[in-house]
């Protein structure tokens, strides 16, 4: 297992242009079992750093990730169906799927850039989600055993709303789900959004909670961006390798 260790406080003291309100050291000495988590924190501490960071891998991690399983979560109406379609590159989910309010979970698979990608769409989360929805999501996750959970949110959504959704995800999935969660900002216009502005608008609490893992995706089929899908799939594949193929499951159900 690869481990990247550095003294976050000492690094922060040497940087003149970091955002101290966005970074909170968990320990005097940070230790990570995911290289991406470490590099994301370094980039937040030192946004002007553009040179590659060195990564030390064990021989056990030098294998090809062929199978990637993703779970889409989010509030009703955020576009999980169209997001799943964009990732798989085909009309796999109908707009009136689980996000429309029904308590059902479904998944579809497709070969995407050399990986067998399975995407599960879950019912929309809301403050009124009942026990039936919780049981369905729990059963879906435990059957699929995903490698990553994608928190789908629209570009421009409020920080309060996103934090509330993440709290529900933690309530349904367990507190350690944040280690597998990536924020997926979606939009449907032809023009790409200002992702740096969106990142700042999201606030430090949620980004820190998910290890500064976030992506942007155009889920409009008329403006499909293969590069965005490729970047997302490759990032998850790297995470799978870093975790040694570890998957997520919910230990207790409602």
Automatic annotation (TrEMBL):
Fetch the Pfam families from UniProt: AIG1
The protein's UniProt keywords, in alphabetical order, are:
GTP-binding, Nucleotide-binding
In terms of PROSITE patterns, this protein maps to:
G_AIG1
> What positions does the domain AIG1-type G occupy?
65-254
GTP-binding among keywords: yes
Q: Does the keyword NADP apply?
A: no
Sample GO molecular function, one term: GTP binding
Output the SUPFAM superfamilies linked to this UniProt entry.
P-loop containing nucleoside triphosphate hydrolases
Q: Taxonomically, which superkingdom?
A: Eukaryota
Which spans are transmembrane here?
none
Q: Which family does it belong to?
A: Belongs to the TRAFAC class TrmE-Era-EngA-EngB-Septin-like GTPase superfamily. AIG1/Toc34/Toc159-like paraseptin GTPase family. IAN subfamily.
Protein name stated in the entry: AIG1-type G domain-containing protein
Source organism per entry reads Astatotilapia calliptera
